[in-house]
Specification:
- The protein is α/β, with parallel strands linked by helices.
- Helix content is 37%, strand content 19%.
- The protein has helices at residues 10-18, 20-27, 64-77, 95-102, 119-124, 141-152, 162-166, 199-202, 206-224, and strands at residues 2-7, 32-37, 50-51, 61-62, 82-92, 106-110, 116-117, 128-131, 185-187, 193-196.
- It has a five-stranded parallel β-sheet with strand order 2-1-6-5-8, sandwiched between helices.
- A hairpin with a 5-residue loop joins strand 9 (185-187) and strand 10 (193-196).
- Helix 1 runs parallel beside helix 6 and helix 4 (95-102) crosses helix 6.
- The longest helix is centred in the last third of the chain and has 19 residues, at 206-224.
- The mean pLDDT is 94.
- Bound molecules: adenine.
- Adenine (ADE) is lined by residues 86-88, 112, 131-133, 135-137, 140, 143.
């Protein structure tokens, strides 16, 4: 898989995609992530990529030409399955969308900025507009990072224990069950007893543990996110 991220702030995105699981996934050859500085595609003497909106509105608008030039250059090299624009008015990002995008071969993520982008880019180049939540960020870089992270970590081999990506919260529209590690019983620094690991997890009965995990997931989902169970 290949992900091309187009941004006016490559210095923000680049270190994120080189670290940890994303960095390792690239070294393992599971994914190529390329970050492009939109200003490299400006024909303006000052490398500008935005201008005032017609109609006297407030704010600046990302112009057609640099984005067109950048995406055209990428498309000349390979075909893209999706050209995604990060925007608070887009379709809400979710685990099913991450799963779906992780099956694509090549995707472009264009990070929005300023007041918006020239409408014609949305009409002619963008195949999908995606929001990571109902709040407004200063730019689309964090949204691109969130999406890239969620997509790459589910690529087979990206995290050591493949099973753990499949048992994540939301993979079955269920929240994850509680997990515990050593010690079996923990007394906190202030002397409070934080309790013990549930016996079932120490029992070695694989089938009963699976059943416990499912019951816990269902109970937590019912309590915290009943909306996820609608239609189940
Ligand atoms: N750009 C600004 N806010 C955003 C959001 N919530 N999701 C995606 N892109 C954005």
């Amino acid at each position: 898989m290949r992900i091309d991220i187009i941004t006016v702030l490559p210095e923000l995105v680049e270190p994120f995609v080189q670290e940890s699981i994303l960095g390792r996934a690239q070294k393992k050859g599971l994914v190529e992530i390329h970050v492009h500085n939109l200003r490299d595609y400006s024909t303006n003497r000052w490398r500008r990529v935005d201008d005032y909106p017609f109609g006297g509105f407030a704010g600046m608008v990302m112009q057609c030409e640099p984005i067109d030039r950048c995406i055209s250059a990428l498309k000349a090299e390979r075909e893209y399955d999706e050209v995604i624009f990060t925007s608070p008015d887009g379709e809400q990002f979710s685990q099913p969308m991450a799963n779906e995008l992780s099956l694509k071969k090549n995707i472009i993520i264009l990070c929005g900025h300023y007041k918006g982008i020239d409408w014609r880019i949305r009409e002619h180049l963008i195949t999908r507009e995606v929001s990571i939540g109902d709040y407004v960020l200063t730019g689309g870089e964090l949204a691109a990072a969130v999406m890239t992270d969620a997509i790459v970590r589910i690529l087979p081999g990206a995290i050591g224990d493949e099973q753990s990506a499949l048992s994540d919260s939301f993979q079955d529209n269920l929240l994850a069950a509680p997990v515990y590690s050593r010690p079996k019983q923990y007394t906190a620094v202030d002397g409070t007893d934080w309790g013990s690991v549930p016996d079932i997890l120490l029992s070695g009965h694989e089938a009963r543990i699976k059943e416990w995990e499912l019951q816990q997931s269902l109970e937590r989902t019912r309590r915290l996110r009943p909306d996820l169970l609608e239609g189940k």
